[in-house]
Design goal:
This protein is an alpha/beta fold. Helix content is 30%, strand content 15%. The structure holds phosphoric acid mono(formamide)ester. Belongs to the aspartate/ornithine carbamoyltransferase superfamily.
């Protein structure tokens, strides 16, 4: 055992670290005035979850309300996913998405077939995703897949006849990350879960990165369009003059939202309420780190009550000096993902009827 870890009452490692000043909003505020509408969520039963644009404002709001309930109550005694099997098939590395999906299934009383690394499947020997999908039909009730290839969900869906949840496809999308992002924001400001009313303040939303090649940023931006009436302006801070790609530009223009692209971080940072950042962009088979000009730390000129979202993993663009500050909403965002994925699995697997009676309090 290393010397530091020898039994010694003076060692700081004998007690877990205390909580910090990081922002950890109260889930109850999201469902206190109105419980989740399970009829809205029932429309997800048996559906694939592939991209952010398949969601409506109402669906995201109700999923997040159910997630908040699940964060607040003990769900395990009800084991609502009893008898259901979920396969997590990850052909690309993950810390959070796979383990939070698996945690969600376990906490709901379902069972998991876990493929943490696609190279242990027949893919290593050249087996097609179409054939792997055909096999999964016999083994499970839902597949959660991550892959480096953007077209991987399309190939799997040629033969898969149980719902597929896209857990990240190359430079494509990461829709359940966007749900986790908006769950964190709706807990932080529950007014965002309701239609805009006179007296509400519109958000200045900042995005550090390139939505065209960062799948989490892309799904976050596309889901943000559902909340456009709550958003004064989206400011995309990027080293690229056109960071979007055609599909995102078209969606932005259709949504009638005010947006700007700039490469000047210092001028824009002080007016932003929410800053969304990511560390890496996909470039075919490789990755590119966020430009070092766009690094944030506790000395960055942030608005006093601004919050930062980051899907993680981070490199040095998000300094740990921010972790114990109220700007840190990214840990709440990561922890809350378990509950929003629980809500999604219950809806997709048609098990909303196994929940305890939900009452407003
Ligand atoms: N946010 C996210 O997708 O993290 P992982 O890569 O660890 O799953």
């Amino acid at each position: 055992m290393p010397e530091d870890f020898e039994p010694n009452p003076a060692t700081p490692y004998l007690t877990p670290p205390r909580d910090s000043d990081a922002t950890r909003p109260e889930p109850r505020n999201l469902f206190q005035s109105s419980p989740p509408d399970l009829k809205v969520l029932a429309q997800l039963s048996g559906q694939n979850v592939l991209y952010a644009r398949q969601f409506s404002f109402e669906l995201v709001a109700e999923l997040c309300k159910l997630a908040a309930v699940l964060e607040q109550i003990e769900i395990w005694p009800y084991h609502p996913l009893d008898g259901k099997i979920v396969t997590t098939a990850f052909f690309e590395a993950s810390t959070r998405t796979r383990t939070s999906f698996e945690s969600a299934v376990h906490r709901l009383g379902g069972k998991v077939i876990s493929i943490p690394d696609g190279s242990i499947t027949g893919a290593k020997k050249g087996e097609s995703l179409q054939d792997i999908g055909e096999m999964f039909n016999a083994y499970c009730d839902c597949v959660v897949m991550r892959h480096t290839d953007t077209d991987a969900p399309k190939r799997m869906l040629e033969n898969l006849r149980v719902p597929l949840i896209n857990a990240g496809n190359g430079s494509g999308e990461h829709p359940t990350q966007a749900l986790a992002d908006w769950y964190a924001l709706l807990k932080w400001n529950p007014r965002l879960a309701a239609p805009f009313e006179t007296g509400d303040r519109r958000l200045e939303l900042g995005i550090l990165g390139t939505p065209g090649s960062m799948r989490a940023v892309k799904s976050f931006l596309l889901m943000s369009l559902l909340f456009s009436e709550h958003i004064a302006k989206v400011t995309v801070i990027s080293e690229m003059a056109d960071p979007f790609g055609k599909d995102v530009i078209d969606a932005l223009n259709r949504a009638d939202i005010d947006y700007e692209v700039t490469n000047d971080i210092r001028e824009n940072l002080p007016r932003l309420d929410v800053i969304y950042m990511n560390s890496i962009a996909f470039l075919g088979d490789s990755y590119k780190a966020l430009d070092s000009r766009y690094k944030l730390d506790s000395d960055s000129p942030l608005k006093e009550d601004a919050v930062i979202l980051h899907p993680l993993a981070r490199l040095d663009e998000l300094d740990t000096s921010l972790d114990k500050t109220p700007h840190n909403l990214y840990f709440s965002q990561a922890h809350g993902a378990v509950f929003v994925r629980q809500a999604l699995l219950l809806a997709v697997l048609g098990r909303l009827d196994r929940l305890p009676e939900l009452k407003s309090s």
